[in-house]
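Hi all, long-time lurker, first post. I run a small reading group and we've been trying to get comfortable going from sequence to structure in the token notation. Rather than ask abstract questions, I figured I'd post a concrete chain and ask someone more experienced to write out its structure so we can walk through it together at our next meeting. Sequence below, copied exactly:
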Amino acid sequence: MPRNPRIEYAGAVYHVMCRGDHREVIFKGDEDRLLFLETLGQVCERTGWRIHGYVLMPNHYHVLLETPSGGLVDGMRWFQTTYTARFNARHRLCGHLFQGRYKAIMMDADEPGYFRTLSDYIHLNPVRARLLRKSPVRLEDFPWSSYPAFIGDVKRPVWLETGRVLESCGMTRPGYRQYMQRRVQEVLGGSEALAGEWKSIRRGWVLGGEAFREKMLERIGERMESRKRESYSGEEVKGHDRKRAEALLRKGLQALKVGQGEIQGMKTTDERKQALTWLIRSSTQVSCEWICEQLGLGHRSNISRAVRALESPGRNNEHLKVKMLQCKD
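-- Answer (accepted) --
Happy to help. Here is the structure in token form:
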């Protein structure tokens, strides 16, 4: 089954989240939560990971994770497998505990504001889920997140780093407490600004500006070079495919010495339009809609007709195919 590519590099920062299988609970009680945190501390010791925030919800968890030496995949494999084995042993169970693959959103660590955005999102999870019912709602009353350690109410584990988040907010511990309490009131009030701020966290694959996104797309391309494209899926792969398709289109237009507007105005039976269609279709998995829009093909059925026409034996178009093959280099 196709899956999202995992991008690993030294100093990478991720928002990691995983739910229980069939959305069932991953903690049956506080002893399980303590076991989870103990296992998290052990994987940090094994890998050198740094945790910048976490929250344990009934059927899922969130972690703001930095990998100074890389190693996300191996570390996460050990962590989730080990916790699952320990959980199953405690409760005399067997089988999967987590639902499929964990989600790991890459974050631009050079932009301090993203530390604030993600830590806010993580720490405010109990408020959004209405797990704090006592009035007034106080975030420190939820013990299963890193927030109490951030404000000094409990001892900070050695594997938990609070400095970068506090620096991103420009605050000390007392100031951070006041800041987060204001955020609690915003959540309770249904702030539209917060919903917009967190949209990319919930739906995106990367948290960062356009330059950071481009760098991550390059890393995805490098990772996919030695593997089958069909092995991967996801928005990040689609982004990589679009980027490659755009580059191939530029090369193809240059090789044919025509402009994109000129190509769009040609008939669908023009051999140059067919050659460009074949080049993009045979080299990427961008959508048919994208190809039709860029080349002015009209209906998507014209894509397969163009590909068949260029590959048909006996036609005097071999020189065009050679030019298109050179664009792939």
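A couple of things your group might point at:
The chain has 16 helices and five strands.
The domain at 12-211 is CATH 3.30.70.1290 (Alpha-Beta Plaits).
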